[in-house]
Amino acid sequence: MINSNGNRVYADDIPIYRYADVLLMLAEVENKKGGDPSSYINQIRQRAYGNNYNAAIHGYTNQGFAANELAILYERDKEFVFENKRWFDVLRLQDASGKPLAFSTTLAYGLVPVLKATEPYKVLWPVDVNTLNNDPKVEQTDGYNR
Fold it and tell me: What is the pLDDT along the chain (146 residues), one digit of tens a residue?
């Protein structure tokens, strides 16, 4: 927004959560609790397909923890394609062994995984150089070199 003096005022940095995001977060919670997240996933699909929604064709059924995590991720990929959420999604969602999907070879749409198994440090941020230079007690995150 531009104020009366011609200066830009940033007054619109409020985080917004769409209802689809809420439903898919609820699906994640339900899946982590060992429940059935399909009702949340199907609400997203019903909205997306509208009058063309057919439960037999488009509906999702509970398929176990790992498959549900992938289904939630794929639904989030379609729903939030240009909203910069995928990195956080692949860090948060897990495979059957409990590792973040960032290391999974099954989610990359036929491409290489987001992270290699030898790069677990990349899920953490490196400490910036100014902080390292200004505080000798701060150590760099494992895996990052000065």
Answer: 788 898 888 777 777 789 999 999 999 999 999 999 999 999 999 999 999 999 999 999 999 999 999 999 999 999 999 888 988 998 899 989 888 888 887 766 656 667 887 888 888 889 999 999 999 999 999 888 75
Q: Write out the two tokens for 20.
A: 């689809």
Q: Give CA angle at 21 (102, 110), nearest 5°.
A: 35
Task: Say how far apart CA 74 and CA 88 lie, in whole Å.
Answer: 14
- pTM recorded for the entire structure: 0.77
**Domain chopping of the chain, boundaries:** 19-115, 116-146
